Amino acid sequence: MGPDPVLLLLRWAHILAAIIAMGGLFFARFGLLPGLEIVDAETRDRIHDAIRRRWLPWVIGAITVLLATGLVNFLLFNALVKESGWAGGMWMKQTGYHTLFGAKFLLALAVFYFASALIGRGESTQWVRDDRAKWLGITLWLALGTVLLSGYMRQLHTGPNIAVDSNGGVGMEGPGGGGGDFGMGGGMDEDEGPARGRPREGGGGEGRSFRRPAGEDEAVPAVDPAAAAEPAAAPAATPAATPAEAVAEPAAAQ
């Protein structure tokens, strides 16, 4: 079963908007501002005005997409955790996911504010544009912190990347370390009576799947141990002819 197309589109949109926003900040700080230092102040102001008219719609669009897709992704994931009963419904509390999301959301709001102020032209945010290099650097650090925190939060509910072998996938623990089968290989059978807890065929306790070689289940004819241990009988030796018999045989033939 493939990924949900709606969730996939939401994630793509979120990632692309983040790339546009952070890429624009990086270029402005390390490409545009150093390049404008060689021109006079009047020319520099005209260039900033021209950039503002073209770049402002992209900034507003990226902020809108990031806010919308981020909130929707969080609500959908929160519903999934509750429906699936991860860690007995305590997964969010055990991992501190809500606290992490709150910190990420505040960092993102700070990035949105400074990004808008740097490209805007209102008098209330002129203090930001008066020292563009400084506030662009601060905004970039805030954006980097948001990205790193997002990656850590994503790791909490996807687990580490593990190579998949060709025979059956990877065995993963359920969320919160519950030990359940996550549908990607095997683990331990939990309902086998006396054999409870033994590795399944096609699964494996360490994340690898093991399959029975082809033909192993075919019946093998039984062999009598006594017959196998008895040496084969040697062929009877033919007695050698005596000299008298050797002379008599040609005469008889005549």
Spell out the blueprint of helices and strands:
Blueprint: H1 5-36, H2 41-84, H3 91-95, H4 97-119, H5 126-129, H6 132-158, H7 225-229, H8 243-253
Core attributes:
254 residues, mainly alpha, 59% helix, disordered C terminus
Explain what you see.
With 254 residues, this protein is mainly alpha-helical. The chain has a domain at 5-158. Helices cover 59% and strands 0% of the residues. The chain contains eight helices and no strands. It has helices at residues 5-36, 41-84, 91-95, 97-119, 126-129, 132-158, 225-229, 243-253. Helix 1 runs antiparallel to helix 2. It is elongated and about 65 Å long. It starts with a helix and ends with a helix.
